[in-house]
Amino acid sequence: MSKFGVLPPRLVLDPLLRGWLLEDVGRGDRTTGSLLVEDVTPGSAKWIAKAGGIIAGLPVAGRVFQLLNEKVRFVAIADEGARCEPGQVVAEIHGSLDALLMGERVALNLAMRLSGIATLTNIYIEKIADLPPRLVDTRKTTPGLRLLEKYATAVGGAINHRMGLDDAVMIKDNHIAAAGGIGEAVTRVRSQIPYPLTIEVETESLEQVWEALQHKADIIMLDNMPLEMMREAVQLIRQQDSGVKIEASGNVTLETIRAVAETGVDYISSSAPITQSKWLDLSMRMG
User: Residue 227 maps to which CATH number?
Assistant: First the structure.
């Protein structure tokens, strides 16, 4: 387990990794299988960063190789969540050469993707590091990769929003339209959900904020509001119920995040660290 985020247990992670390995290996690695006898030739390799950034996903990468051969030793040289520089060795791998070659692409792809997310997340975090609001991620994730992509945002310094539709209630604009209003939506949902779940309501105006307050929403999201309206909404919520959490969302960029944080919200949600991140380039060198 990382000190930044919680990786899924092997019961959950291993089937995902096996599926991705099967996608790549198919009916067999024609190149490696033609050159090497399985589990006979020993080998070693180093992972080298080709760009600077935040490292994430090394425990996942190590597990990829171990699924191919349980004797493989994957040694993380860089700490999870640490900043790396171009040319830095971030990991060493020792074991059967055929396993190293077969697992290379899947393991590198995952680590590069997760490190890219952690890197961009950390850039967003640095913009508001001296202010109280916390950055949270969203459900805009790659199908099949959500658990790992959200792990990467945590490594980068953010906190996770709900993992799925079953984690918490979020009443969005389309739910409000379907129910006929915020009050009706909150009332109907509250009568059916389990006790521990919280209710978040998305609002786009001060009138909707007031309605969400009247129906005791646990969290009020200020969605795509101009900064001045956002400040008014925060003041209104604080005056009426200091226990309500406030989340800002919508078109949050590196240029706007600090101004949003200065309105006094508790959380700022953004999909950008996941949807707009570039992979952090890593390479594997044998020997």
Answer: 3.20.20.70
Q: Which of 140, 216, 238, 278 is catalytic?
A: 140
Q: Which residue is catalytic, options 29, 38, 92, 105?
A: 105
Are 172 and 271 members of one domain?
yes
- Residue 263's domain comprises 130-276
pLDDT (tens digit, 9 = 90+) per residue, 248-257? 999 899 999 9
**Out of 46, 83, 146, 172, which one is annotated catalytic?**
172
Per the annotation, the verdict on 223 as an active-site residue is yes
Residue 61 in contact with residue 74, Cβ under 8 Å? Answer: yes
Q: Are residues 171 and 145 in the same domain?
A: yes
Q: Over the range 251-285, which residues count as b (16 or more CB within 10 Å of their CB) and which as e?
A: ebeeebbeebbebbbbbbbbebbbeebebbbbebe
Across the chain, what does the average pLDDT equal?
96
Asked if 114 and 57 count as a contact pair (C-beta separation under 8 A), the reply is yes
Q: What's the mean pLDDT in 179-187?
A: 97
Residues 244 and 201 in one domain: yes
Count the domains in the chain: 2
Average pLDDT value for residue range 101-127:
98
Binding residue ranges: 105, 138-140, 162, 172, 202, 223, 249-251, 270-272
pTM: 0.95
> Do 76 and 94 reside in the same domain of the chain?
yes
Q: Give the pLDDT of residue 1.
A: 37
> Annotated binding site for substrate, which residues?
105, 138-140, 162, 172, 202, 223, 249-251, 270-272
